[in-house]
Amino acid sequence: MERTLERNRQLFYQGKGVISKQDLDNAQSQARQQNSGGQSPVTPDPKFRLGFGSKLFAGGKLIRFRVSFAGYLEQVQNYSARQTGEAMVLIGLPQLLIFPIVPCLMQKFDLRLIIFVGALVFGGSCLLNIRMNPEFGGPQFQFANIIRALGQPFTIVPLSALATVGLLREQQGDGSALFNIMRNLGGSVGTALLSTMITQREQFHDFRIGERVTAYNPYVQQFLTNQSVQNLRHSGDPVAALQQAYRMLQASVQTNSYVMAYSECFLALGVILLLPNPNDYRKADFPIEPIFVRLWSPRAMSGEPITDQEMLTLFEAARWAPSTYNEQEWRFLYARRDTPHWQTFFDLLVELNQSWGQRAAFLAVILAHKMFQQSGKENPVHLFDCGNAFENLALQGAAMQLVVHGMQGFDFVKALQVPDDYAVVTMFAVGRPGNPADLPEPV
Questions:
Q1: Nearest to residue 272, comparing CAs of 113, 70, 68, 57?
Q2: Helix, strand, coil percent content, the chain, rounded in steps of 5
Q3: Which of 326, 410, 400 is nearest to 365 (CA)?
Q4: What angle do CA 114, 91, 64 make, to 5 degrees?
Q5: pLDDT tens digits for 157-213?
Q6: Dihedrals φ, ψ of 144, to 5°?
Q7: How far is CA 404 from CA 29, 134, 314, 364, in A?
Q8: What are the phi and psi torsion angles at 439 (to 5°)?
Q9: What is the pLDDT of residues 190-201, one digit of tens each?
Q10: N or C, fewer C-beta in 10 Å, the chain?
């Protein structure tokens, strides 16, 4: 730790040695070469990644609804394939009238607003079907299906446009193919999840209803008696009539179990679509890139390590920050968790920051070179330039979904015995997001 930082070199210092800018460049170049072979040319675009994931979600959402609707009609109402298709026509036909209008609306309104309205309408239509009964069939679904048909085009088309807005012309084909893949993949995942949910909930309700359907229940006795009398008129065999009454009772229990299971599925679909985005409360007054709104400084971290490539990527982002005469006055001193120098850095923190900083992947101190390298004169904006570098690093961390939290609560004087021509700027912690419930009470 007594090693002196050389004056005229751009260095990144870690507890176990010194890494020059050339070493950093070589490491980044090697990492890019390793990843360049199989990387799609469209995936790095943030908006495409957002639409990519949204398409997975939307595909799962739409297929889940269709499977639940068709499955309900076939399992509960015993509809044939033709009857099911006729009932589902109302979901498709109104969309033919809506789709031509959507591009016009996209030119006048924010795409995110259109998607929100579409999800709101679609989710609301699902909530219309949460109070079903065994007599609830195709005609009872008509109104909700028309509402769904009105909302669906407002999610599919704007999502595609929002994600591909940053793609070059030669990337449009790849983007379209990936979108179709994600829609189908989302549908497959959604179908599996929905089928599992229906099966488990049907079994749950069947068990709970069965607890109350006993031979000692007067309503059950009355049901069996009435059905046995009716069956006896057709069969003439009292034993067969009673057995058929029991089968009818079992079928009634199963039908009601399925109705409740499907009602819960519609409720789940509606709630998922109507759940607010946790970032919705962070609103910019004027249009800016979403990454600025996503940037914040939580304290909850999981304690998991980050890879060398992730750490070098953060430092690479800082290296591209603007600075006076390209001085790049910043230096980063850091120590990873579970390394010999971690305790040295950790002991710099005040007690409050230690309470949550102990779960960081690494801790770092930013130093600023106070003198111009060429002239040796004092640089009056060395702190300002280091702020630019940290902002770049923090934004990159937000893009990578890492926690980057700056701190002033540490011992500036004790900070690693830096040379006189360097100023201690700040300290920060980096880690993977954790559970806020794990934070200590004062935090």
A1: 57
A2: 60, 10, 30
A3: 410
A4: 80
A5: 777 776 665 555 666 677 667 767 776 776 677 777 778 888 899 899 888 888 888
A6: -65, -35
A7: 24, 54, 10, 11
A8: -70, 150
A9: 777 778 888 899
A10: N
